[in-house]
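(Deposited chain)
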Amino acid sequence: MASTAEICSSVTYHLMEFEQLNLKEIRKVSNLREKETWSPPPDDVYKINVDASFHADTKKGGWGFIIRDSAGDFLEGGAGNIPRAACPLQAEALAALYSLQHASHLGMTKVILETDAFQLGCALKSAEMDRSPYGALFMQVRELMYSQFRQCNISVCSRICNKVADCMATYGACVLTSGSQVFMSQVPSFVFDLVSGDKPGAGCQ
């Protein structure tokens, strides 16, 4: 039968092994997240990243979007204030609606609408959520997708890949007191570094 010292030594050894395994897993997840970056669209397609900000205590929020081409160049961005929203999903849907309206006004016909809101992605890819309280809004967005664009695909990404749109939405919620603001061609100073960092090959420079 093992002595007390031998048992303690064995337990200590296995705890150290367990800790090393945990550290390896943490490093692995960290490395994967570091590799996550915004991906550009194909040559003849524009990518619209959208996001929303929502404050549960005040029911106020903001929306934001950025449109870029295959080179990662900024074409247009926008942000707006939401004086009243029921929940984050409604705010996300409004961000999608307003961004697509701007893209259609620019004459774009082939776009990818990218969001980090999984529920919004599901609601725009099918009619499964049309009976929800915000079904009419989802249908309005889909109608715009089908009527104004030759091609409009929905993409769901991680928050890391959507940080520019997130910053635009925060600007709409916290800086704009009402209405909206559109930025044409010129990258807003408060997202300049983020846009530059998302460009293909930026991480290799």
